[in-house]
Amino acid sequence: MSNPSILILPGDGIGPEVMDQVVRVIDWYGAKRDLAFDVSTDLVGGAAYDAHGVPLHDDTMAKAQEVDAVLLGAVGGPKYDDLDFSVKPERGLLRLRKEMDLFANLRPAQCFDALADFSSLKKDVVAGLDIMIVRELTSGVYFGEPRGIFEEGNERVGINTQRYTESEIERAARSAFELAMRRNKKVCSMEKANVMESGILWREVVTKVGEDYPEVELSHMYADNGAMQLVRAPKQFDVIVTDNLFGDILSDCAAMLTGSLGMLPSASLGAPMANGRPKAMYEPVHGSAPDIAGQGKANPIACMLSFAMALRYSFDQGDEAARLEQAIETVLADGARTGDLMGPEGGTPLSTAEMGDAILAAL
Amino acid sequence: MSNPSILILPGDGIGPEVMDQVVRVIDWYGAKRDLAFDVSTDLVGGAAYDAHGVPLHDDTMAKAQEVDAVLLGAVGGPKYDDLDFSVKPERGLLRLRKEMDLFANLRPAQCFDALADFSSLKKDVVAGLDIMIVRELTSGVYFGEPRGIFEEGNERVGINTQRYTESEIERAARSAFELAMRRNKKVCSMEKANVMESGILWREVVTKVGEDYPEVELSHMYADNGAMQLVRAPKQFDVIVTDNLFGDILSDCAAMLTGSLGMLPSASLGAPMANGRPKAMYEPVHGSAPDIAGQGKANPIACMLSFAMALRYSFDQGDEAARLEQAIETVLADGARTGDLMGPEGGTPLSTAEMGDAILAAL
Ligand SMILES: CC(C)[C@H](C(=O)O)[C@@H](O)C(=O)O
Ligand SMILES: CC(C)[C@H](C(=O)O)[C@@H](O)C(=O)O
């Protein structure tokens, strides 16, 4: 039997340098844990635009459809700010999400003990925080038609369409309930059902799916209140399920609560493939950070934890995922820090590669 | 000449009890500062539904169009949760905003010195915080057509439409720049121009309006990053301008940062009327808080500060507004607290009316 396959798309900015460290970790699993992967690498985002004039080449898209998992670094940068909407780096990422039909975006917001002081929130509000946000990723206002800028009378009008079918809501909700069953059995669904009909349908369908999970406690919250409650008392949540746009904002808000943005991974999962594995893409929550790109300052941990999520969700290697997560906790507890994790006390931060060294040593 | 007129709509939940205290303050201005108002009172939200079967009677709507300012308490409550969308309490509020064409919703997020400890954020992150969020209030996904729940094949689909014309964006942006000129001359505009065409148009029009205000430093931020930056370092902002839906979420997020939700007012302003005053409605940011309604526990300060905003923006009485704001700061500095402002040390909270007494005494 051939090895499971991974397509690596380092992308732009700090993407390539953090991905270099992840490749070392992948190699380690092959050499030491008898877990070899067939790894290939390709371009996405601005890097793909520079090479091909599009942010994702059709051949790359085809490869992504065939592999067992895609690992993506980050896309975008000021260099591409003036490009036409249709070829912006982000379109490469959105095309992957849409064509692979990755409907469930899992964004854990965890506060690492060693880093609780980094949060702008009080320590007791965030210490031990462990939320899972499930964001619907293939529909809503991100993809709804009609969309565009149109002439209307003597002025222009910008239009986007929020659209959710019952089945789109249902499959995202089901992912959230399944996760809750393996966690603390609480799901909070967020929308604006007081203002938007799409939110009314969302609430109705989530409620219906919830009937299949009688052990899970389901609550509903308007998204504006959700943002407030995340800031006020985030530990009240276990799993949050919400749509594409609310999920974009609320998951970033939740990520920032932890103070550990350079630490947070994500998984985007679709339907099972013929081999039983879900279509899947893994990527850090942080962006391409063009201001520090190429300087060896970036924190590779979020991208490594994304690979840990791949081990868990794509390759059914929960123990091996935990091994990597544990190694990372150990080096943090020992005081290893990249620049983004340095406190006001100062000290010498580790470079991206030195952090890689430390984690490999801990493994 | 007749007195300026105010229509009071106490609404639901704690609305009536906080409004009682505001009426005492209004009366004080008439008696002591020679600033008499013609005050009338009417129903909105669930209270209007109970009386008339609609959340806003046409007669009330007509009155709102005629007065110099509307003062609203809060709408909604669990009693009305199962009502049809079209007659929910919120529809009364949305109808007022839409028909009065109140396009600029001003939401200050201020951290009161005496209350900085209440924030879930670290004191140095929020102490002295003073942001003004300008939220577009009459368009976007709140009002765009088509909207509804439709049959499509053998399932239903929920649809809402995000729609912004150039002139809608322009007038909201202009309000933001005008405010910035009287503040710290910084405007940050938030949208998702990387994903939504309506965001592209938003960014373009705001940039164009900015050319009329060369002294104001304009920046743009994606709304997800905006949520992060609000949590990470809110003091970087002066004026934020954003659309109806992003504004709903981001302003609640910003409000919660201050830890003083029971303290925050808002103003919703439209075009100038024949007498030169803008169409205007003022309301606290907090909701109807059904859990404590009718118990004399509610904090009347947000509603009083909303009246202070009315003095400033509708009646050109900036000094009198400052007098009321100062009185409120004084009673807080003296330790007056309603239940929502009590720390873990305990003590006896003031009732709603006792807080009113204290503020009147300070005036
Ligand atoms: C880069 C951008 C298109 C993307 C999004 O809006 O979904 C990002 O913010 C994210 O959350 O992954
Ligand atoms: C009550 C509701 C309709 C309203 C809104 O969504 O605008 C509220 O959340 C607000 O921010 O004033």
Automatic annotation (TrEMBL), chains A, B:
Pathway: Amino-acid biosynthesis; L-leucine biosynthesis; L-leucine from 3-methyl-2-oxobutanoate: step 3/4. Substrate binds at R97, R107, R135, D224. Mg(2+) binds at D224, D248, D252. It comes from Tateyamaria omphalii. Residues 5-359 form the Isopropylmalate dehydrogenase-like domain. Its cofactor is Mn(2+); Mg(2+). It is an enzyme of class 1 (oxidoreductase). It is found in: Cytoplasm. NAD(+) binds at residues 77-90, 287-299. Pfam families: Iso_dh (PF00180). The record marks Y142, K192 as: Important for catalysis. Catalyzes the oxidation of 3-carboxy-2-hydroxy-4-methylpentanoate (3-isopropylmalate) to 3-carboxy-4-methyl-2-oxopentanoate. The product decarboxylates to 4-methyl-2 oxopentanoate. Keywords: Amino-acid biosynthesis, Branched-chain amino acid biosynthesis, Cytoplasm, Leucine biosynthesis, Magnesium, Manganese, Metal-binding, NAD, Oxidoreductase. InterPro entries: IsoCit/isopropylmalate_DH_CS, IsoPropMal-DH-like_dom, Isopropylmalate_DH. The keyword Membrane does not apply. This is 3-isopropylmalate dehydrogenase.
